[in-house]
Automatic annotation (TrEMBL):
The keyword Chloroplast does not apply. InterPro entries: AraC_XylS_family_regulators, DUF6597, Homeodomain-like_sf, HTH_AraC, HTH_AraC-typ_CS. It comes from the Bacteria. This is AraC family transcriptional regulator. SUPFAM superfamilies: Homeodomain-like.
Length: 287
């Protein structure tokens, strides 16, 4: 449904990865959101109608909470919210579909969806079921074409949002932490540089992103490996992604992807599993 990796061809020679990996990111037409929406939305991306493939799709771990407007070839439409995804899943979609993905900014979940990001981690919900102001726009999003989404959100969403200095300060602090966590700087050093405790930093990430700082960094590194894989030795990939050595990279990749890098790029991935079920409203509120 969202990020999908289709392993097309692969081989491994002299420790180098020589794989052709196509993700949904490669298919996206990505647009920056209008200025009025940038405190809450980082990107609006359109994916055209994609036909079923013979090989399994990989739903890669994801750090962002995303509103997804899914369009099936049959004409059926859904507006869903996908929380951060802590581990990869594998699927064999059997129906053609396209989608628009609205990626929320760190710290924006509560303002838009009425829930901290942690309540949505590894969950799928209908936007209309959520208590936040964005739920009021679900019906309007359902009838919009992809090229109308940005203008619709720019015109309607600010009317429902109520910001305050505390939220703005938390978003700014979280933005600074995210920028630092993406590097090889230890979490403790990031907390010190921001003049907060590690506990405060963890709480900020949990509420605003739905992940701990360490898990956020792990997902970021694995996605760097997926994006950078080419005619590159494993040891270089490990170093470039911030790992101590190749064995640490392999262990982390296997933990998040369910398979080692070598097996993944050979197309030897775990068996597909059914699509994730939609979480009911009372289950979200009790998270």
């Amino acid at each position: 449904m969202l990020t999908r990796v289709d392993v097309v061809t692969s081989a491994q020679t002299s420790g180098a990865v020589t794989a052709t990996v196509v993700t949904a990111v490669d298919l996206e037409r990505r647009l920056p959101p209008p200025a009025a929406l940038r405190p809450w939305i980082t990107e609006i991306a359109h994916i055209p109608m994609v036909r079923p493939a013979v090989t399994a799709f990989t739903h890669v771990p994801e750090t962002a909470t995303t509103i997804v407007l899914r369009r099936a070839a049959s004409g059926q439409r859904d507006v869903l919210v996908l929380g951060p995804r802590t581990r990869a899943t594998y699927a064999n979609p059997n129906k053609a579909a396209g989608c628009t993905r609205i990626r929320l900014a760190p710290g924006a979940s509560e303002a838009l969806l009425g829930l901290p990001a942690a309540a949505l981690t590894d969950r799928v919900a209908r936007l209309s079921d959520l208590p936040g102001p964005a739920a009021e726009l679900a019906a309007g999003l359902l009838v919009r074409e992809p090229e109308e989404i940005a203008d619709f959100l720019e015109a309607e969403l600010p009317q429902y949002l109520r910001d305050n200095p505390i939220r703005r300060d938390h978003r700014r602090l979280l933005d600074s932490a995210v920028a630092a966590i993406g590097s090889t700087v230890p979490v403790g050093e990031v907390a010190t540089s921001l003049a907060v405790s590690e506990r405060q930093l963890r709480n900020l990430f949990t509420a605003g992103i739905g992940l701990s700082p360490k898990h956020y960094a792990r997902i970021t590194r694995v996605r760097q490996i997926l994006a950078a894989a080419g005619n590159t030795p494993w040891s270089h990939l490990a170093t470039d992604s911030g790992y101590y050595d190749q064995s640490h990279m392999t262990a982390d990749f296997r933990s998040l992807m369910g398979v080692t890098p070598g097996r993944f790029f050979q197309g030897r991935v775990p068996a597909p599993t059914p699509c994730q079920s939609i979480t009911r409203p009372f289950e979200l509120r009790s998270a």
